[in-house]
Amino acid sequence: MVLKVFNTQTDRKEPFEPLRPGRVGMYVCGVTVYDLCHIGHARSAVVFDVIARYLRYSSYDVTYVRNFTDIDDKIIRRANEEGVPAREIAERYIAAFYEDMDALGVERPTLEPRATDHVEDMIAHVEKLVRRGRAYPVEGDVYFAVGAYPPYGKLSKRPLDELVSGARVEVDPRKRSPLDFALWKASKPGEPSWPSPWGPGRPGWHIECTVMSQKLLGNTLDIHGGGRDLVFPHHENEVAQAEAAGNEPFVRYWLHNGFVNINHEKMSKSLGNFFTIREVLKAVHPEVLRTFLLSHHYRSPVDYSDESLRDAAAGLDRLYGLLRRVDEVLAGRAAPAQVPAAQLGDAERAVHEGVLALFNEFEDAMNDDFNTAEALGHVHRLVRQVGAFLHEGVDPRPGTLAVLRYAAESLRRLGAVLGVLKEEPVAYFAAKREGALESSDLDPAAVEAKIAERAEARKAKDWKRGDAIRDELLARGIVLEDGPAGTTWKVKG
Q1: How confident is the model at residue 166 (pLDDT cuts 50, 70, 90)?
Q2: Of 259, 282, 305, which residue sits at a domain end?
Q3: Fewer CB atoms inside 10 Å of the end CB: C or N, the chain?
């Protein structure tokens, strides 16, 4: 199946054909570094991390660029509140951003430009727009002349007359139209500034992304991504700035992820209804948050709740639980890399065919506009199939061991595309137990002692006592799981 992506520009799925065969240039709007990131930011970061991973899995050479907006009104406001330089605020929250993204397993993009490193390029671009009559200076500021660019509104599908009548921008009598937006802002006393032909000032937000993306990827980008809230005005303005300067087309495919909602309302700092990534990761394993975010199509809104996180945790537990069972079977046993199909029994052959089918199903789902929700469903289908195979009892012959190893390696390989199943199962469950026990009165040593006591009771065929210990632990939130390697335990999700 050919990769198809939903292009915001055309409002339909289109076959993906990069400008240069086999190579993809992708730019995604990064964060403005004035505060800690919330899980709305996490969604965009995880979504485009997976898109980059899948493109590479599909043998594309990907140059992935994600910027930092490190000069902005919000950064300056925070700096003034704290009485520190704006650069100190930016550096602090860039470091915090990396801590959050590393915890989430988000891979570093190929390039991560900072706006302040490209101010000269931005000035040159603004000068070009002024020369072409698409922008005009006023008292040290420079505005884009929306009326001089007739295609304005083509990305967001908003007619100019409707935009003017419904403009929600501060009225400035110096502007030719209320829709005209700042390309360059004259500096105020005490603000960071750079010299320019119009006097000391700093770039506007929109021009930053236009210039950085084209500087690093060329005049035409294969993919430009970001949250749905950026379609207008940010991405609309990016298109105008790029194409009004003669760089057309600016973007081949526009991709936008949906919102994270709380009670069906968009999560955002401005509304005050947000959870930081750090707050969430105190309660759940990072891969649980990734699984939650990827369990919905990236263009759809997702509703955040404790219940949704519990569902994601339960699903991830099933994946790691299957890998743990396979590891236990393979422990100390040499599994051949490959066994001729003729040497496989019917049950083994069915599992082998199930793995082969998974690759096709997974790729079909991802080729359909990166449908991670469907891809995860196919992964769980194989987990159920292998789990049923193990439930029937394992004959430790070469064919069986080879098939189990193949299934586990395949799950890990596809998990890597989604950024999950990176840990050893034993370590995953141990970390989960420790995290859950931190906020409870349960003592791991006491749990292990109870398990040992139960083992002795079962050895003496005192089944009643063994069941009583199991029920006692269950009442305290501890679930026992008996397996070939002995009894393990987990905190009830």
Answers
A1: very low
A2: 282
A3: N
